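Lab notebook, bench 4. Still working through the backlog of constructs that have no structural model yet. Next entry is a single chain of 531 residues. Request: give me the structure tokens for it.
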Amino acid sequence: MYKIRIVFLLACLVAVSSCVKTYFPIEEAEETEPPYSGPPRIKELVVSHVDENTTNLRLEVEGDDVELGSFVLRMYDFTSAEHIDDFFMHTNNYWYLNGSTLPSKSYNLTDNGIRDLDTTVNVFSYSFDISDWPDTSVYHFSAGWHTRPQTISYKSMSRQFTLVGGKLDTAKSANIDAAEHRVVYSNDTVYAAFPNLFKMNSGLLGLSFSTKAVRDHIDNTGGSMALVSSDGGYGWSTPTSPMYDISWLTQASDSLLLASAEGYIYVDESLRDSLIAEQRVVRDVRPGTIAYLGGARVSRRSATATAWQQHDPIPIPIELSGLMNHTSAASYITTVAGTKLRAVYGRRKVNLNNEGKSEIYFLRSDDDGQTWDCFPMLTAGISGLEITGVDETALVQAGNGNIIAIMRSRPTGNLWSSTSTDDGLTWSTPNKTDMRGFPADAIKLNDGRLLCVYGYREYPMGIRAAVSDDNGTTWDVDNEMIIRKDGQAAPADLGYPMVTELPNGKIFCVYYHTTDYVTTHIASTHFNIPD
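Model written out:
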């Protein structure tokens, strides 16, 4: 019997001589610990291969008001859907276990409803009939609880698992010898995420990241932090002079610029109707505040200034409803020919209400940033592919001069890539890579190979990497590097790795991580690429 057992840590003993932590499962403390009271949380997920025809899922949630929400079981990537009974495709292009007896489908799975095999309160159980599943079938699932069908602000939590031939996929082990993991920044009251790692002058490394007060990608309550390292990322300190990425430099002395999407602009909720009339992407942030996606701009300043001194708009195509950024150091490059290129993403107005239809747009300048163009990767948009959209994109120029765009796909699953052979003017139809995860960062190594790092939000969650020795045409996932596999986040919220090669050839990778379901922090790993 294969099992995933996910339990909350209730006690820990510290051995002074070795600093080894020993954790005790929740069952051993039930007599002394009072019943949990607080926001709903997943207590346990168990996936069991019962017999040759059956695999069972058992999910237990505890906390206050669990009964007001519902369970949810999502299939987000698969080799084929034909062997899965009881699932339906939602308008967001994911497959869900249907919890409704009505003709209309529902992804809300009621406790003790039609799909629940366990009558215990706050426990959901479902059995897969795997009798006709091929041994080669692969299905990736997310099982959890969410606040629906309530109409309050959406909250959810989930755990991931993969079935291969109907059986639980055994986890890959971390496979990089002598990898050095460090916590760069951690605060129990702060949601630290989205690191931006960049090279500065004089061999320094710069790092910036968000320090939000709430676990939310839209709500901007909180701040940010900047750090600098003079020893290749082993130690960090507060900068004493203005920081900048050397890729922002222009040919003019002491002049910096960065092209970007305006991203979310925060305004009073009274503007909602007018923004919707303009066909803008509008999101709720917090009571009284909404956010909408703006256009694009180029920001300019001197190298000695502490903030951008000038923002000039970049005209965007009329069909766009707004643009969003991926991390600047991953998505902005200056090519060998001197072209400045930024990958951003957004939805056309005709796809305003379909989040899965995002596309890549480029901000491009071939005159050292004096003038800029904004145009789509594909003039006609994405069609005829197994994905509906792409968004967060890393750019890297290979040794042969080609520029490779490595994109997060919708629905999420594998990374997709596109190639430009003319300095970013035109792009090939995206193709599916064998790298599974998102989003990515990519660099050209000193030996000419390409290295791509990416978050992995399936079991076992963490950070992974792969190398290409043919200028990005293929990626060696047979020798995929598993940098971290100890992620425990609810929901599956970790990753956004950034990477650089140090002068001694060692690889330095920084990312945000959660190992206790609670504290999201900035972490790093130094490692060597295995021979």
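Notes after review: Residues 1-31 have pLDDT under 50 and may be disordered. The chain has two domains: 12-168, 180-303+327-527. Flag for follow-up if needed.
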